[in-house]
């Protein structure tokens, strides 16, 4: 496995864990948020995906998603390839953040993303609100 393969595999896992209930567009959108962060923050996909406080489904002990794995025949692997290769249009319009803002939020996301006024909404896809 090459480093590119590894990054693409992690991308697929994160997309599936974070947004499998949001369909193809939702999973693609999460993939683009990860890619947008990597580009903007000059990091690898790996660094973004497994970074502290980035994606709870990938790194937070006790999050029930950390033990779930997509079936090998899941379409998310093809979606991750299109995001990774740049062949997929970004449905988030450059978003760096997302959350289900219909549920009570607290902590850094509420304070630093929503309340700061620095991160306008770009799109809502399913239950996820995406922000720049």
Description:
The chain has 132 residues and is mainly α. It has one domain (3-131). It has 6 helices and 3 strands; from the N terminus they run H-H-H-H-H-E-H-E-E. A 3-stranded antiparallel beta sheet has the order 1-3-2, with helices on one face. Strand 2 (121-125) and strand 3 (128-131) form a beta hairpin. It is globular and about 40 Å long. The N and C termini lie far apart (33 Å). The model has no long low-confidence stretch (mean pLDDT 95).
Distance between the termini: 33 Å
Strand content: 5-15%
The number of distinct structural domains comes to 1
Q: How many beta-strand runs?
A: 3
Sheet with the most strands: spatial strand order: 1-3-2
Rg over C-alpha atoms, rounded to the nearest angstrom: 14 Å
Which structural category do the helix and sheet elements fall into? mainly alpha
Largest sheet composition: 3 strands, antiparallel
Q: Taking all residues together, what is the mean pLDDT?
A: 95
Number of helices: 6
- List low-confidence stretches: none
Helical percent range? 40-55%
Task: Give the structure's gist in a few sentences.
This protein has 132 residues and is mostly helical. The chain has helices at 3-19, 23-41, 45-49, 56-59, 76-85, 107-114, and strands at 97-99, 121-125, 128-131. The longest helix is centred in the first third of the chain and has 19 residues, at 23-41.
Write the layout of secondary structure elements.
Layout: H1 3-19, H2 23-41, H3 45-49, H4 56-59, H5 76-85, E1 97-99, H6 107-114, E2 121-125, E3 128-131
Antiparallel strand pairs: 1-3, 2-3
């Amino acid at each position: 496995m090459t480093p590119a393969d590894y990054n693409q595999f992690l991308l697929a896992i994160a997309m599936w864990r974070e947004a499998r209930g949001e369909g193809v567009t939702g999973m693609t959108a999460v993939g683009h948020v990860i890619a947008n962060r990597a580009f903007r923050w000059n990091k690898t996909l790996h660094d973004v995906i497994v970074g502290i406080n980035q994606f709870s489904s990938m790194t937070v002990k006790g999050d029930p998603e950390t033990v779930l794995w997509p079936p090998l025949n899941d379409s998310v692997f093809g979606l991750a390839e299109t995001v990774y290769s740049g062949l997929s249009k970004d449905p988030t319009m450059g978003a760096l953040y997302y959350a289900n803002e219909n549920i009570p939020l607290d902590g850094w996301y509420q304070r630093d993303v929503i309340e700061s006024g620095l991160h306008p909404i770009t799109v809502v896809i399913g239950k996820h609100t995406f922000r720049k």
